[in-house]
Amino acid sequence: MDLLIRNATLPDGARGIDIAIENGRIAAIGPGLQVHAHQEIDAAGDLATPPFVDAHFHMDATLSVGLPRVNRSGTLLEGISLWGELKPLLTQEALVERALQYCDWAVARGLLAIRSHVDVCDDRLLAVEALLQVKKQVAPYLDLQLVAFPQDGLLRIPSAFGNLKRAIAMGVDVVGGIPHFERTMADGAESVRLLCEFAADQGLRVDMHCDESDDPLSRHVETLAYHAHRLGMHGRVTGSHLTSMHSMDNYYVSKLLPLMHEADVAAIANPLINITLQGRHDSYPKRRGMTRVPELLAAGIDVAFGHDCVMDPWYSLGSGDMLEVAHMGLHVAQMTGQEAMHACFMAVTETPARILGLEGYGLQAGKHADLVILDADSTIEAIRLRAARRYVIRRGRVVSRSPAARATLNLPGRSGEIDFRLKRQDRSV
Ligand code: FE2
Fold first, then answer.
1. Active-site option among 93, 182, 190, 212
2. Is 97 among the residues known to form the active site?
3. How many domains, the chain?
């Protein structure tokens, strides 16, 4: 064997698990493996998880904060106009450099697969070319899936559909859309039809920014589910954001969720962004704006949490940490039950892997040897601590290491090194 990881805990709670790795794949996984390996890692009971997956990101805009100016109001609309100012100034070299820097951060955070939207409304398709180059360059260590995103509106911009088709022909993987940003609700519905028919014809997946507003009457995810079902695209269509669902009438939602389930349409919430950009027209009470995550899950619909933005025209914060995303999602959705907290961890690992259709993902024999060993002993502990990624492993090779979080105290009678986990004696009553 090339690598043996001893004494790991798995996301399902199984303890004392060894993972044997050969030729970039998991050769065996189970307790007490009797194998010899060139390299051994003692996980010492820490959590081994498949890598983090971000199902919703904008790599063409990332790390551009302050260019050409900062978003003073912090609103979605100022962000959109700021992006419009920045777009003509973009150069391919700067875009590639920023994307590569972000991918470095991602790897260090154990984030080894990202679905990024890329704006196709710039006729030069400069960002498409740049991100296709980045996709090829990072492929040995990170799976980058690209979505052709007509950010200014498929029907609002005359060249948008042609550009989107060119982007797909150049190698972009997924068909995007933004129906709520078209001129009318009817144009929005028409854009969904056109894009779904194009994707079905090309055998591609669909992931649309859908109903990203506080408008309780926005209906585009219903249209998306309708066309996904009509065209037999079950399991290959995703609605991103869906923030209007937060404000919808409860009766209508009780009809909508079964339609999404029937069409096997997945949902992606972006907690950090939804909580900051939605509800901006409200006084108090102020809506949170995130879609109905627990209700979607209860209806049997796949829900992932995406990062959406890091240091760009819409959001000045973030560092590629999907545990920070899960932490925010858990709080905003009030998912504080034990199973609900575990589901938040799944929403940044296994569920987005399924949405992206990642091949060979998971901790089973025969799968890619891609995994992360966290400075935590459970999925809940990982979210609580936004735990350090002690080892990030890609195809059986350690690609990043981080020190565990420790502090050295200098207190009367209480000096020495501490971590942030409960000590055994703390558990006595
Ligand atoms: Fe987005």
1. 212
2. no
3. 2
